[in-house]
Structure formats: structure tokens, C-alpha cells
Design a protein that fits this description.
The two termini are 14 Å apart. The protein has 2 domains: 146 residues, ATPase, nucleotide binding domain (Nucleotidyltransferase, domain 5), CATH 3.30.420; 191 residues, Nucleotidyltransferase, domain 5 (2-Layer Sandwich), CATH 3.30.420. Helix 1 runs parallel beside helix 3 and helix 10 packs across helix 11. It is an alpha/beta fold and 403 residues long. The longest helix is centred in the C-terminal third of the chain and has 25 residues. The mean pLDDT is 96. The protein binds adenosine-5'-diphosphate. Adenosine-5'-diphosphate binds next to helix 10 and helix 12. It is an enzyme of class 2 (transferase). This is Acetate kinase. Keywords: ATP-binding, Cytoplasm, Kinase, Magnesium, Metal-binding, Nucleotide-binding, Transferase. GO terms for molecular function: acetate kinase activity; ATP binding; magnesium ion binding. It catalyses: acetate + ATP = acetyl phosphate + ADP.
Length: 403
């Protein structure tokens, strides 16, 4: 069985074609900078090196057309006929209160997704355009939507509610939804395999640390709480997002600052101009921040320390909520690669049984591995995430349930 995973971001379309019999990638790539003067297309297959070229791509529809034509190309393609694809899995960032698990695309589902536009305005319209483009290019092949919010559906009401008047929940569906669910789900399963115990016997904290970051408490395979909220802005300090702040600051800024009288300007401030970037004034990228801090830049050092401290605070609070943990997982760009961030977080946590082996932590590797000491009560793990594979598995499961 072959599954095509499609991930339409605000200005990019990523894809991976999987052979599910062995869960191996056949072809994968990305079209970036859609709608700009110059777009880029990078593609690779299991048997060819990565190739990059400039392209002119004005919309998500054009990007999907480019990708499918490429997959079907007689010389460089990976399939001879569209019927070789059994199902398409679409990554969807926000399911709102409408979607609690993966669904097969129908007219009704598309209508429901349209109603989620306002809740994730950067992403959902792009997802929707991608779904329509795939339908046009691959008629008759079923599509499945896999939601980043779905894994967090088990969070209890006392954890997902905000203490605003109840009608804000009833009327406007304002509650914690949580994000990166597909990643947290994948690394939880891998952590159980690494520890060698069933997931339903384990208590885990998973830290997905990328440009956007979230920490999740997982008990017996079910999410108990997660750091992101109604949107992916809540929680820890991120690349260019502020994470948790006193909400009264917003009302205060509106009052005192002439530039911030509308929600768009405030959203830009909190999502795109804050976090590492806002504090350091240099970059939202962790590598640049660490480099600048090492070279003596005080604001970069402060930004780094703030980010690590905020993560440590969430880990400690979830440790308490779970009444101890078996494993702590680091994943995504920073979690998988930044020795400095992992060390800063794990230092002085031995009271919780979290003891890092700094030598193991410093060893570069792209494989899943333990970086805790032999005596550490809590296993510290680095697990490269694989959201695409998880989406492919979900899509296959959806199709198998139907037949
Ligand atoms: P996104 O949330 O956009 O998917 P990623 O998971 O790719 O983000 O993570 C991007 C972050 O990972 C950036 O801050 C980048 O600096 C950081 N990162 C990537 N590689 C390294 C590395 N070798 N060392 C430190 N940080 C890294």
C-alpha cells in the first residue's frame, strides 16, 4: 500500500510518498516560498540525491500540481499511474471543536474544515487549498485529514478550560486544544519501545522543541496536559513567540501604544517579533542565539536562559502532576540537536531522578538514544520525530477501517 502525505503550510507544501508494507519513504520534497517572486522546489527519492531548483509557483494548487506531475514523470518520477496511491494523508494544524480524530474527507468534512478558518487563519485556508488541489489531480483516491490537535483530546476539562466566563467556551469554543499532537504521539510510542515497556504502563513528558515548542504530559499513552493552548502561542518561550505572559499586558499595550490598536498588530508582535528574536534582537534561530551568547552577547544569553527556564518550569510542573515520570523525551530541531539546551534544562534536576550523562548528551548522532546516566530514575531520551510516518499510519488505519 502506498500513502502520499501532504503538509500544506502557510507558504509551503511538503510531501512524502510512503510504501507502507515496509514503512519506507519512496520520494519526498518541499515547495517553498509559494506566492513570492521566486519559489524553490527540493525533491529527493530513495534512489536519487536531493535536487533543488527555482520555480514559479503562485498558489498551493500550483505547488500540488508540480509535485504530482513530478511523481508521475516518466524519467524522474516514482509511480507510473495515480492508482498506485491508495490514500492521501493531509496534516491539519487545528481541528477546533469539530474534529477530535482523523477523518476521511467528505463534502461535510470539507464544510467543517472551512468553519475552522478563523481559528487558525494562517494554516487552515492553505490546508483547504491543498485538499482541493489533490482532489483535482488525484480524482477518486480517498483523502484523510490528520489533526495536530487530536492526540490532546484526552486532556481533562479542568486542564483544558480557561477560567473565563463559561459562555466563552460554549459560544466561542475558547479552550486549550494543544498542538504538535502527531509528534508527541509518535515519540511516546517510540519511548515505550526504547524503554521496553507497554505505553499504558508509562508516565512520560515529551518536549517537542522547534521554532514552535510544546511540552506534553502523557500518562498510559493519554495526554493529561500540554503547554500550548487555544493557539500555538501559549506555553514556553519560542523562536519568535512569547509563550506565557500576563494577559493584562495586552490590555495595557493597547492602552499605551498607538501601534497596537488592532488584533493583527498584536498577533504579529507576540507571534513573530518576540521569543528568542524579541529578547536577543538577533535571531529566532537557536543556533544563531547560542553562537551569539557564546561570543558574549548578553541579550542572546538572556534569551537562551529564558527559553530553557520556561521549559524546565513546564517539565517540573508536569512531573508533579504525573506524580513522577519514567521518561523525558526531547524531539524536533532544538530537542534533537541542541546539546546546550538539553543540558541547561536537565542540570540540577536530580531531586526528581532526572540525571543527564553529559558525555552521551554531547555525542552527535541523528539516531534515537538514551542520554541519562545508568542510575537515573528517569530515562532521558532523544527521539527524532517522524510526523509524516505517523500521518501515513493514521491514513492507512482510516482506510482499513472503512473497508
Ligand atoms: P519547526 O518548528 O519550524 O519545524 P524545527 O523543528 O526544524 O522547527 O526546529 C528549528 C530549530 O532547531 C531552530 O531554532 C534551529 O536553530 C534549531 N536547530 C536545528 N539544528 C540545530 C543544531 N544542530 N543545534 C542547535 N539548534 C538546532
Amino acid at each position: 500500500m502506498k500513502v502520499l502525505v501532504v503538509n500544506c503550510g502557510s507558504s509551503s507544501v511538503k510531501y512524502t510518498l510512503f510504501e507502507m508494507d515496509n514503512e519506507k519513504k519512496i520520494a519526498w520534497g518541499i515547495v517553498e516560498c509559494i506566492g513570492l517572486l521566486e519559489s524553490y522546489y527540493r525533491r529527493q527519492t530513495a534512489v536519487t540525491e536531493e535536487k533543488k531548483k527555482s520555480v514559479k509557483v503562485a498558489s498551493h494548487t500550483e505547488a500540488v500540481e508540480l509535485i504530482i506531475n513530478d511523481l508521475l514523470d516518466k524519467e524522474i518520477g516514482s509511480i507510473a499511474n495515480i492508482d498506485e496511491i491508495d490514500v492521501i494523508g493531509h496534516r491539519i494544524v487545528h481541528g477546533g471543536n469539530r474534529f477530535s480524530k482523523s477523518v476521511l474527507v467528505t463534502k461535510e468534512v470539507k464544510k467543517g474544515l472551512k468553519e475552522c478558518f478563523s481559528i487558525a487563519p494562517l494554516h487552515t485556508p492553505a490546508h483547504y487549498a491543498g485538499i482541493l488541489a489533490v482532489e483535482k489531480m488525484l480524482p477518486g483516491i480517498p483523502s484523510v485529514l490528520v489533526f495536530d490537535t487530536a492526540f490532546h483530546q484526552t486532556i481533562p476539562d479542568y486542564a483544558y478550560m480557561y477560567a473565563l466566563p463559561y459562555e466563552y467556551y460554549e459560544k466561542y469554543h475558547i479552550r486549550k486544544y494543544g498542538f504538535h499532537g502527531t509528534s508527541h504521539n509518535y515519540v511516546s510510542q517510540r519511548a515505550a519501545a526504547m524503554i521496553g515497556k507497554p505505553l499504558n504502563e508509562l508516565k512520560l513528558i515529551t518536549a517537542h522543541l522547534g521554532n514552535g515548542s510544546s511540552i506534553t504530559a502523557v500518562e498510559k499513552g493519554k495526554v493529561i496536559d500540554t503547554s500550548m493552548g487555544f493557539t500555538p502561542l501559549q506555553g514556553v518561550v519560542m523562536g519568535s513567540r512569547c509563550g506565557d505572559i500576563d494577559p493584562a499586558i495586552i490590555a495595557y499595550i493597547i492602552k499605551i501604544h498607538p501601534n497596537y490598536r488592532n488584533s493583527e498588530a498584536l498577533n504579529t508582535l507576540m507571534n513573530k517579533e518576540s521569543g528568542l528574536l524579541g529578547i536577543s534582537g538577533i535571531s529566532g534561530d537557536m543556533r544563531s542565539t547560542v553562537k551569539a551568547a557564546t561570543e558574549g552577547n548578553k541579550k542572546a544569553k538572556l534569551a537562551f536562559e529564558m527559553l530553557c527556564y520556561s521549559i524546565k518550569k513546564y517539565i517540573s510542573s508536569y512531573y508533579g502532576i504525573l506524580n513522577g515520570i519514567d521518561g523525558l523525551v526531547f524531539t524536533a530541531g532544538i530537542g534533537e540537536n541542541s546539546t546546550a539546551v538539553r543540558e541547561k534544562i536537565c542540570v540540577n534536576m536530580h531531586a526528581m531522578g532526572i540525571e543527564m550523562d553529559t558525555e552521551k548528551n554531547n555525542k552527535p548522532s541523528s539516531k534515537e538514544r538514551f542520554v541519562s546516566t545508568a542510575d537515573s530514575k528517569v530515562k532521558i531520551m532523544i527521539i527524532p520525530t517522524n510526523e509524516e510516518l505517523m500521518i501515513a499510519r493514521e491514513s492507512r488505519a482510516c482506510i482499513c477501517m472503512r473497508t
